[in-house]
Amino acid sequence: MSFISVEEIREHCSDMILSNEQLKQVMCKLNCSINQGLSKKTHHDAIVKCFVTYVQDLPTGKEKGKFLALDLGGTNFRVLLVTLAPGDFDMKSKIYAVPDSIMKGTGEKLFDHIAECLSDFVTEQGVKDVSLPLGFTFSFPLSQEGLSRGILKTWTKGFDASGVVGENVVELLEQAIVRRGDVNIEVFAILNDTTGTLMSCAWKDHDCKIGVIVGTGCNACYVEKVENCEMYEGDKSKPEMIVNTEWGAFGDGGELKFIRTEYDCEVDKNSINPGRQLFEKMISGMYMGELVRQMLVKFTKDKLLFCGKGSDTLFKKYAFETRYVSEIEADPAGVYDKCRSILRDDLGLEHTSEQDAVNVRFICECVSRRAADLCSAGLATLIDKMPHYPTVTIGVDGSVYRYHPHFHNLMIAKIRQLCRPDCDFKLMLSQDGSGRGAALVAAVISKSGTRSLKNPVA
To answer: Which residues are the active-site residues?
Structure first.
């Protein structure tokens, strides 16, 4: 078996490395898709839906009181009790699992499970008999018709509970609470995790105008001029509106065909939602490890890795976990200890050579850097689209951003290359954005006096 250098692997990975010219094409196409989502004329057929959130007031930092928050967006969800005081907050929370049978069962069972956990939490916290406003972070594509009315458009991230798509999620939760009859909770608002992230960071930094999640999924929201939000038919006296782009679906109409690879197509084909969320599938943690595995399998079969000999584990879908990418890249440059141990102990590739480890690390870097570049192109698009604020803070959350050792720096460098040169921007890690942000939305609404669920427009 001849020696396979990293240069040869680099050549075979070339379609995973995007130029700035390609990224600027992505930006142009995304900007067009966002405008289609904002327009009443084209919204129905738009790929990037740009749902108005009905959240028009950002926090001032002076909010106070006790609020509940519910954060559902993956295989675990959190219930939180947030106590706000001017410039300060206290947060108690508990994590509950969502078993696979409930994720893919009936909607009634899903919301009964959530209501049961809510009841358990407020009992533990000694607030079962207190009526508290609740902010509900629901991290799936929603068409919002009010602050407390959100229609699920499609499940993502492995959820497929029946009887929920097309329904008002708040109403389903309220019905489950009524079925229990043992708690008194008023749902003030439903929001996406990106909105929660933006709100949480804006509480500390009033320059925060964008919220982005790079975790199991990938999505972003931003502050738009209300006059551009044609789908919003409420009071337009306030100048701004947070828009939930749902940019994970970008590419579903063929916009990304010019940069998608055979590995992207294979991951998509074997996913729970083929043909959908294609932008997300090139970035998010749910798919990053599988993209690497697809490349490892192809290169093994082409005898470019592991002397052409794989393992049962390597050929098993999703066996290469996304956390392996972060762990492998966390080793210092030129060190491959973690890579070798993962290949040997987790993938059963005991015959791995030093050069294999070098090459596998390079493949991981290609996948993670492309993800960072694409996310950066999306954020640069939003920065350029918004009014020319002199400073823009981007609130960021999600496991990929948090735990990948280079993602932050990669994004900083690439956004700077792609966005307008006169913008001073920074990335701000959100602290419990999905929870605290939901509580802050409830706090802002209660402060503004917009308490009626039947007339929820802020």
So the answer is: 157, 193
